[in-house]
Structure formats: structure tokens, C-alpha cells
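Not sure how to ask, but would you mind making up any protein sequence you like and the C-alpha cells describing how it folds?
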Amino acid sequence: MIQEFKFKKDRYYKAILKLVNVFIGLTDYELSIISTMLIHNIKTLDTASRVIVREKLNANVATFNNYIKRLKDKKCLIETKDGLIISDRILNSIEDGRVDITFNIIE
């Protein structure tokens, strides 16, 4: 079965992330952080971009940093020399606007 859905950009990332979240296991707020980065084309989460994402989510510094640590622990944000980047595991799931999920029964 193929089902097509259309979303505006501001809702697209959150919707597709919720779909693949069954396999990733993020909280709604963690999904909001990742989708906010994607909506605003933030490739690297550094000092300046943290401020942008925090302001968009109306979050205080301590709470935001706690969620960033959780995203790092879950390997959804990966440390680089330039800052944190979204894991390929997430990016590959959403890059072409199509998610194919196959279910197999195992015994």
C-alpha cells in the first residue's frame, strides 16, 4: 500500500520525524529540536545556532542543553570539530521526502 501525504515545510519535518520515530524513540521535544534545525536549514548546532533554535522553541538554556545531551546520548546529534550535526541515520530517513517501511513477520 502506498499513501501520499502533502505538508507545508513548517510541518513536513516534524511529520516525517514522527513517522520514523517509532524506530528512533525521541520525545516530542527532542523531535522539535531536530525539526527546528531542519526547518531553518541549520546543518551544524554551534553557539550561534543554539541561540536561534532555543529562541524558536522558547526554551531556557538549562533545559535546552539537557535535551541536547540526550540527543547526543541517543546518537541523533553527532559531535564534530565545528559543532553538533544531525545523524545520517535521521537525515537519510527524510532526505528524499519518501519513507519506505517494510514489515516482516519473524518466528
User: Anything to note?
Assistant: The chain has a mean pLDDT of 87.
